[in-house]
Design goal:
The protein is an alpha+beta fold. It is built from two helices and 13 strands, in the order ααβββββββββββββ. About 20% of the residues are buried.
Length: about 220
């Protein structure tokens, strides 16, 4: 399109130069035509320049639209992060003691106190991370001295922390607790296991498992 415009302009300018052979003779009509062609050349040149400017403006507008879409996406992601609230707290909630068992056993904290985000499953005892981020978990236990009381906190199949109290003939009750920050990916599982030949008390909300999302990543 631009090549055609400039070629057309050059053609008219060439015609004007061809007609101008140095002769002073000519009709009034020829003089009018010769004076008209330079105006047409100027108009075509201006049209070509305006077309280039419009093309540059269109390119800038497209770039601005792309940047705007990226900014809107980033704002939406930030808003989604702000709306993601995850926190839970649960207790064993059984009558009497839990254990001892002859093998390590996953502790099911049946009584849920808080479960914002529904990431903790009260039927399996497993917390499943709904989003990637840094989480904080705590475990507390209460038990008698007749048996050891050992709890392990796991991330997937990895042992992370322990709370432990040894068997004691002179101590009627023992308490234990621990806490940890964990970086989790979406779908990672966190749960607590009671060590073999150990026990904990399940009544009166003594033994708890809690956690919450600190920062989404």
């Amino acid at each position: 399109m631009h090549f055609f415009s400039f070629s057309f302009a050059l053609l008219f300018c060439g015609l004007v130069l061809a007609q101008d052979d140095g002769s002073t003779a000519g009709t009034e009509g020829n003089i009018e035509v010769q004076s008209c062609f330079p105006d047409m050349c100027d108009l075509l040149k201006e049209f070509g320049a305006m077309t280039e400017k419009l093309k540059a403006m269109e390119t800038r507008l497209k770039d601005s639209e792309i940047r705007l879409n990226i900014s809107e996406k980033q704002i939406l992601e930030l808003r989604n992060k702000e709306r993601t609230n995850v926190m839970f707290s649960a207790v064993v909630g059984t009558a009497g003691t839990l254990g001892p068992f002859d093998t390590d056993t996953t502790v099911i904290y049946k009584t849920v106190i808080t479960n914002i985000g529904n990431a903790y499953n009260q039927y399996t005892g497993v917390f499943v991370a709904p989003v990637a981020g840094v989480y904080y978990f705590t475990i507390f236990s209460h038990a008698g001295g007749a048996h050891p009381a050992t709890l392990y906190l796991f991330k997937n199949n990895e042992h992370i922390i322990t709370t432990q109290d040894h068997q004691s003939d002179y101590d009627t009750a023992d308490n234990g607790g621990n806490a940890v920050f964990l970086q989790l990916q979406q779908g990672d599982q966190v749960y607590v296991r009671l060590a073999e030949n150990c026990h904990i008390w399940g009544y009166n909300q003594h033994t708890t498992f809690s956690g919450f999302l600190v920062s989404q990543m």
